[in-house]
Amino acid sequence: MSNTKILVPLGLTNSLHHRLIITVRLLSTAGNRKNERIRQTRLESTKQEEEKDFRVFQIKGLNPRNKREQRKNDAPKMQPRYMNMKPDDDWTNVWPTASTFKWSAIPFPVRQGYTDNLSENENVTPGRYANTELLKIPNFLHLSPGHIKKHCQVLKDFCTPWPAGLETDELCDQHFPLTVKTRDYCFSSPSVADSRSRLVTVKLKLSDLRLDEHGEDKIKRLLGDKYDPETGEITLNTDRCPLKKQNYDYAMYLLTALYYEAKKVEPWELEKDEADIDKYSWERSQSKRNILKLVQQNEKEESLRERSEDDILSRDEIKSYASSVIELHNEGENYTTINNYKQSVLQLLNVKSQLT
């Protein structure tokens, strides 16, 4: 700061002289401060213009921070939720619904991903923190046993008791022999319609139709590959109509038509011979007629000769013979079938002594 001297008249007192010197010095100091502020403002404006053209990278910790910024950054941070969780916390309240993976709410360690080499992450599978691989896959943390128990308790009010007499699958099949299967598809798209949902599958045991031998043979021929001989099950798949309800009605129509068509007996069907039948039929076989004729010829008493065919065929030895003949024709010749046929014939030849 410069000192400026001013000449005053000799008549002034010493106090006035000192006041003038102090005033001049204050004016000089104020002028210097004003010039300093102007220069500082120009420097700051120039610096801002330079920063607009080129942004300077600020290295954290290189320059000293002011107290306000330091207090702001040094504020206490909240801990992850799993750090404050207790072992007896209700998991259904922590993860109530389906949600994307949140690393801060999982109280157990989870790892996902891989490392390319030994130097990456010390060759350790990445943990849960900031792991995008865990965000990609769906999780079932909302379907724990506790969640399912709560869901069941809520849905229990809308359910009815299970009907009595349907405790086993066999009883269910006995009372409800018809099985209908349909499909529904859910996906995110502009249209919720799916052409595959119109498919209807109807399954039924052939024995549940209670057809006679003629009806079973005829419906098997009408069904073709829709009948499984190993399981004895009829399977009808319908997908001709555009709607599920239409395909269901069409399947019921097919089943009804097959049933009544199988029970119908055409005149030409009576002309079928024993060779036209897939399986050997004892009722139409020549062996049945021969055994009846043989037994009736060997009867001595007229009262025994007048017995009906049902009485003769109900004998144990004739039933055994009929069973062995059917087994021999349907299963083919092997040691078991031939031996059974032999024993039944030997027993049948002694039928005279058993009748008397």
UniProtKB/TrEMBL annotation:
GO terms under cellular component: mitochondrial small ribosomal subunit
Domain Small ribosomal subunit protein mS35 mitochondrial conserved: start-end pairs: 193-265
Any one biological process term the GO annotation gives: mitochondrial translation
Pfam families per record: MRP-S28
InterPro entries reported for this sequence: Ribosomal_mS35_mit, Ribosomal_mS35_mt
Domain of life according to the entry: Eukaryota
Official protein name in the record: Small ribosomal subunit protein mS35 mitochondrial conserved domain-containing protein
Species per Swiss-Prot/TrEMBL record: Patella caerulea (Rayed Mediterranean limpet)
